[in-house]
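Researcher: Here's the sequence for the chain we discussed earlier.
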Amino acid sequence: MTESVALTAVDGEPGVPDGLHRLLDLLGAPLAGLRAGDEVLIKPNLFQTAPGFHVSPALLAAIAKVVAEHGAQPVIAERTHAIYEILRDHEAAKYARVVSFDDLPLRITGIEGATSLRVPIAVPELILDCDFFIGVPQLRTHASVVYSNAMKNLVGLLPGYTTRIVHMAGVDESTVDLNVMRPQDLVVCDGTTVIEGNYPMDGTAREVGFLAASRNAVALDVAVGTLAGFDPESVAYLRDAHGRGMGPLSLSEIELLGTPLADLAFDMVKAPVEIVVPREGIHVYAENACPACSRFVAGAMKALAGELREWDGEMTVISGPQVEMPPLRGVVMLVGNCLYESRDLGIFVEGCPPRAIQLAAFRYGMGKPVGAHERTQFRVPPSLVGGVR
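Model: Thanks. This is the structure I predict for it:
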């Protein structure tokens, strides 16, 4: 079965409502089947408050309005309380209930067919019980998984602490497992503004001006990724999803509707993949790291380059399985789950890959203060508690 992806150019936020209606018409009115009283979950990227670093509230308002006009009950939900700050006084709140997943009751549930999240996890009941599910991602580069859009947006379905479990279990396969748990009935991608560069460690908002929509999250990610200059086959979670029969991995298997993809195409600034050591005295051994952890180290070296140059200490960064440990010089940073058995040799930054917040481990290693929550994101061996060697 060929999946369809609809594309349209939009001229800033004022053009968003008309752009949404064009997409829905192109897809054959995917909301027409909503019934009075249906609960419709709308899940945006909305956990950061910085301008440009979240989905357009105007798009959420337009989607919620259409849902409400069908007699259904829209709910806009996202983890963290940033959603309240962004939407509290916005038009979107007139049409939809606005809530954080962190404030909702949970249900322990297993994911049938999961390959990474193979044990039951705590999931907000709304996700499991809603009648219709609309994902509203913002296209972003990603320092660990290449790029983030429709499928990766579902990591934000879970309460804040659970994202750590996802990374511990393996973020690529966990992303696919979450899409197995609750497939999206409709995805509307916000490309009015995208985030490019070394995100989520840092990044830059860029105004672009498009919207895209599909009934299939994999197809949407393939089309939008290609539009932005990525090779979808380089993305592990897309290859996995395709292998599980969840969607296409090639444009040749996708029906493109609306504005020609070539008319919207642009070259997004990618996150770094090459590890560049900022100065002598910083020793990196990551030749055996998996691609995700290798990209994490590359992103960390770029994000921390200035701080590492200003710091006068020595540091050894190791990632990936080691038959024999390299020389341990200065502060030792152990990156990724593969190094669990060596965790007492230095500061252990767990995850496959670790998350951006875990850059705090490197700052701790440089003797800089870190917040109480940041301090929970890495393990310091007993020999280093109370101060870094």
